[in-house]
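Response to reviewer comment R2.3. The reviewers asked that we include at least one raw input/output pair. We reproduce the pair for 4-coumarate--CoA ligase-like 2 here without editing.
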Amino acid sequence: MTIDRKSGFCDSTSVFHSKREPMSLPPNQHLDVTTFISSQPHRGETAFVDAVTGRRLGFSELWLGVERVASRLHALGVRKGDVVIILSPNSILFPVVSLSVMSLGAVITTANPINTPGEISNQIEDSRPVLAFTTRNLVSKLPSSNDLPVVLMDDSRAASSFSRAKIVGSLEAMMETELSESSRAKQRVSQDDTAALLYSSGTTGTSKGVMLTHRNLIALVQAYRARFGLEKRTVCTIPMCHVFSFAGFATSLIALGWTIVVLPKFEMNQLLSAVEIHRPSHLSLVPPMLVAMVNGAREINSKYDLSSLRTVVVGGAPLSREVTEKFVERYSGVRVLQGYGLTETTAVVASMFSEEETERYGSSGLLAPDVEAKIVDPDTGRVFGVDQTGEFWVRSPTVMKGYYNNEEATASTIDSEGWLMTGDLCYIDSEGFVFVVDRLKELIKCNGYQVAPAELEALLLAHREIADAAVIPIPDMKAGQYPMAYIVRTAGSNLSESEIMSFVAKQVSPYKRIRKVTFLASIPKNPSGKILRRELIKLTTSKL
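Raw output as returned:
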């Protein structure tokens, strides 16, 4: 087998191989990701800093807290294979919960705080958690009909006011509980066991639980080690429920001894103040955040001292060459490291490492360590080579175990040889750089979140004055894309654009809201009834 050293392409197999040094992975023995992370050597002292309160969590305090919480969870009956849900904004305690749950061989599932009660109820119905961690402000989003035990992540003194919630304790109390001398019997955890269940719209449209194993997360830690190294300082503002943030701030960077300054949510002035006060060298952002920094560069540079910044890592959605060039021009001395990954690949597929690689604007970087890729014609199945565009298939130690309780979706996404079909159209150039060209799948990327058109269409069709509907993406400089709806009204209806947008807004998260409505006599479809979205996208583009 001969592999071209420049591109990583092998002619005999039509497979692209990573040009990075292979990762060092532990043998496939009984090992959970929490134990692996806690055993990694580093010289870091402070693990987390709350940017709002100033509270600090040292590494010794972190690991003692993880052990104490795990012990209390075991006492509450949480066992290997049980699912525990966390519904919380970013917090220095979010990783404590996640690592504690995974150390037991139980499964952590993360819910987005901005999701509606209905969306959270659907996730709970699908994942069947035995326990929930949440805050006073969010407990009301849990289903009232569900007798789910709840642990509060903030002050529990007002717990009695939650008459319909089954409060069984507080996280702070768990972390202060002394460990008993009689140690709990720890169940053996395999690296192939599921560690995390992160919900994604996936490559087939509707929201599904992505099963990430302990081995997936251990491989992720090693990929971060190769890319970033030990003991740096960063700010976390991306929601930890999202794979991009969960992968870095709740797992991998802890193993490397990084100090992570945590903001509860993204707010530009708070982020910039945190950079000025805490002096991080590194930021992780999604494209809309970086665009906002580009647009406000003059005012930002005059008001804030950002001189500590050296690296900005961007993921979650493609970033245009133009935006990258403007950012580098307006924030001198800061390099932009782009990357590409999916929830289904534990956030890792391709990335940039060095300053030289950042100059390849428009690229997502080189294949990450131990990643293999194929470029496949989506119509014929023919496998392409260098500089040819097709569907991007990947195989690596970070590819998910599958979709939770959904064998059909798993089989249509991962083939028998372990190749995951990303649903993205890409090409790999003669030097091995990955370029994302388009989305073969029909998902809309809004502010780094995935929006399934089918979900919004089903919601619209439930309206008695809507005869047919189609949802497509509309480009936006800040958000990347927004959902737009084409609507066929029922005979005699005068339903307005604002009424439709309001109808949807009441039932979905902010990032799923319809931002534009156009009325048509009929929705274009193929003979089998499938919506011809590309025709609608062309129609929309011609009017912009």
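The CA atoms of residues 350 and 457 lie 33 Å apart. The mean pLDDT is 91. Further pairs are available on request from the corresponding author.
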